[in-house]
Amino acid sequence: MKKEYDIIIIGGGATGFGCAIEAVSRGYRTLLLEAYDFGKGTSSKSTKLIHGGLRYLENFDFALVKEGLEERFSFLHNAPHLTHKQSYLIPTRSYFETVKYTIGVKLYEFLSGKYKIGKSYNLNKQQTLAVLPNIDDSKLKKSLVYYDGQFDDTRLLISLMKTFEAKGGVALNYHKVEKIFSSTDSKLDTVKVVDILSGEQKEFSAKHIVNATGTFTDKTIDIANQQDSHKYVSVAQGTHIVFDREKFPTEHAILIPETEDGRVLFILPWHNHLIVGTTDIKKEAPSIEPRAEKSEIDFILETFNQYAKTKATIEDIKSVYCGQRPLVSPKNAKNTAKISRKHEVVESKDGLITVVGGKWTIFRRMGQDVLDFIETKKIAQKISKTSNELLIDAIEPKETYPLKVYGKNAEDIKIIQKELDNHKLLHSDLPYYQAEVVYHVRAEKAKSVEDVLARRTRAAFLDIKASIAAAPVVAELMAKELGEDQAWQDQQVVSFKEFAKNFDLDELYK
């Protein structure tokens, strides 16, 4: 007997959970299905920004920027344990650049209106060198500081999952939708699903089915047998490299305002490391395991070194990660950097609702738009409540990293440490405790070593070699909780090493 819901959402990334939280907050029986782990795709591999998008002003996308700035305010309010206000410094190399970017930042602040989170200011050359001692000063004239937000993307996603379920929703990872069909020869109302881990086949039905599968949007439309030749998504790949914080010691994030490919490049302090990125290259098809190209890594490193006094080398790179953006497919655009980050909600003739485009910052607004779309057409309208709704574990941080990302639940990890009499770290080069792994299994639906090292902690993003070394410890801790044997542990370690190849510079440069 298949279980019935009001709404089924396919896709367990930022867009999917934006829809899910909105739906359950309005009182709908809601099921979310994710084929892999929550956030395995694009949502774990972002640049970690909460922003309106300063560079979008160049394209006169004022409405998009304003929307992002409004959502930035809600983002920071609703998850104080996972977000923070971050200062961003733009180094300028001419009087013209100083004037140009000052005007841009002032317009950015103006568009934020009552949602402004800080006032911009200028620094002269000496002041800039005082806060950025490693910046190359050979061409430096001045700098400009403004404010945006920063967050931990997948930790926020896990917090959304727990909030969704606390409100009565059901979220299933490792449940792959194989078919979307109609049980009544009318509109689409049923999904056929396979549990990837057990092989069990299941069916669920709902009044409305939402396709929120990001870069895989068109593939999801295909399995619904929709005769639609239009491709809704253009796939753009973005790569980041990670250094130790010492390569550019500063509390400021740095925005390099113009690169050779027409983008901006960010140098971001994050979890006591430094993220540098991103690129923007068009891909013909999506991949669940995207692989950075050597040319992307070289480009980021070269651009970084144009602004750094002490140059970085490939040996300094601790990890590489690569994500793919689901952009609304334009009629003609050769350069994905120029494609708008707007989102759209569309419905097929058989009733499949698809949301495409957007970015992390506006995930809540995307969910609101999807529910408004559903209600306008089919259901009595209910008021959105999510703009000022704290996440289930939200609290002003009392702990330091790494426990602060758990919010109220940090105490649960301390209890597990006492229970196991274990205060050990996973690895001397990683900031994570072994007790966290147990918590991930018990409370956060972690099913694999990859789930823990890539998405419950951010170990794979911070130091891939240390993560590989920690994999056997994680497997052993998980096996005890899950009742698995040594063969399972061995297979988990092998699987993680295969996954890690796309983060490991030695593998990427082979």
UniProtKB/TrEMBL annotation:
<dbReference type="Pfam" id="PF01266">
    <property type="entry name" value="DAO"/>
</dbReference>
<dbReference type="InterPro" id="IPR031656">
    <property type="entry name" value="DAO_C"/>
</dbReference>
<dbReference type="GO" id="GO:0046168">
    <property type="term" value="P:glycerol-3-phosphate catabolic process"/>
</dbReference>
<feature type="domain" description="FAD dependent oxidoreductase">
    <location>
        <begin position="6"/>
        <end position="331"/>
    </location>
</feature>
<dbReference type="InterPro" id="IPR000447">
    <property type="entry name" value="G3P_DH_FAD-dep"/>
</dbReference>
<dbReference type="Pfam" id="PF16901">
    <property type="entry name" value="DAO_C"/>
</dbReference>
<dbReference type="GO" id="GO:0004368">
    <property type="term" value="F:glycerol-3-phosphate dehydrogenase (quinone) activity"/>
</dbReference>
<comment type="similarity">
    <text>Belongs to the FAD-dependent glycerol-3-phosphate dehydrogenase family.</text>
</comment>
<feature type="domain" description="Alpha-glycerophosphate oxidase C-terminal">
    <location>
        <begin position="401"/>
        <end position="487"/>
    </location>
</feature>
<protein>
    <submittedName>
        <fullName>FAD dependent oxidoreductase family protein</fullName>
    </submittedName>
</protein>
<keyword id="KW-0285">Flavoprotein</keyword>
<keyword id="KW-0319">Glycerol metabolism</keyword>
<dbReference type="InterPro" id="IPR038299">
    <property type="entry name" value="DAO_C_sf"/>
</dbReference>
<keyword id="KW-0274">FAD</keyword>
<dbReference type="GO" id="GO:0006071">
    <property type="term" value="P:glycerol metabolic process"/>
</dbReference>
<dbReference type="InterPro" id="IPR036188">
    <property type="entry name" value="FAD/NAD-bd_sf"/>
</dbReference>
<keyword id="KW-0560">Oxidoreductase</keyword>
<dbReference type="InterPro" id="IPR006076">
    <property type="entry name" value="FAD-dep_OxRdtase"/>
</dbReference>
